[in-house]
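Hey, resending since the last one bounced:
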Amino acid sequence: MMKIGPIELPIPFVQAGLAGYSDRAMRGVARRRGCPYAVTEALLDTIMLSGGLGLKKSIDIDDTDHPVAGQVIGSEAETVAPAAAILHERGYDVVDLNFACPVKKIKNKARGGHMLRDVERGHSILRAVRERLPTATLTVSLRQSFDGDEAADELIQLLDEAWRLGFAAARVHARSVEQRYLGPANWQTLKLLKQHYPSQTLLGSGDVFTAADAARMKRETGVDAVWIARGAIGNPWIFRDAAKLLEDPFTQLSPPTVPDQRAALQEHFDEAMKLHGEQLAGRRMRKQGIKYARFHPQAAEVKSDFIAVSSLADWRRTLDKWYSADIPGVWPADDAADEVNDQACNIA
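The structure tokens again:
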């Protein structure tokens, strides 16, 4: 049992926020298959403050969507703090400040991972959010450096201020900002950071594509929890599988059967329909279906049919065509989850 502030998690694996993927539908399907904690995609502070129906749909949560962290990204303390307050007031259990995404620098203003080049700006945002939300459970997401291959001094300065302000946890992605999502992640950085902050709650991310990766990161680095991003797309079973492998690394896992896959796909689409309506749900679920297809024995053909889906009728035909037989699934290639590449954070 590990904790993020007052929140106890039965297993040390969480679903990350992924732009265009990790909505309430994806979170719900994962929760019903063992995910104990999830994070929204990064929400831009200025868009949140402008309001509107689209915002309401994107941040609404229900009684089943807990514990959940709402993630906000921005460049100014005076806009990030009230945006964070919106999430807190809407019932999010945690507010996460995104200082990690390798977004473009806007004019002369840093946001996301660019905070590593403007530490004072980062400090001012951390302080403003804590002042606005003195009792809220707060966390911060960071990268190991801006352009180096190990933990930067700027990272330590931002972490130290977060701990001083009583932030409950920090997540560190073991790549630099300039790497984006390319090249190998440096898990040794995570191990050294955890040794440096033994009494703080540290989450690690980077190169977690399979349940085996997640369990291995936990064992090899000692982080308190593993943040599963691309590896969770189309694989809501990854959390329970990782927990089994953490308990016994020699456990022989079985891939989800085709009926198991159909149940997850149907749930996912039904939830997406309720949340987004048919047209948008169709677009979002097309790319989700492509990732689910990795576990089907005829993955290439199934993927091709999901690419062609444009309506609810297409979706149903695809499920009936490929997911009616009671047959075993298959394990995808270890690098299949990496196909998402650097689209995981695509804020304009």
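The domain at 2-253 is CATH 3.20.20.70 (TIM Barrel).

Sorry for the duplicate.
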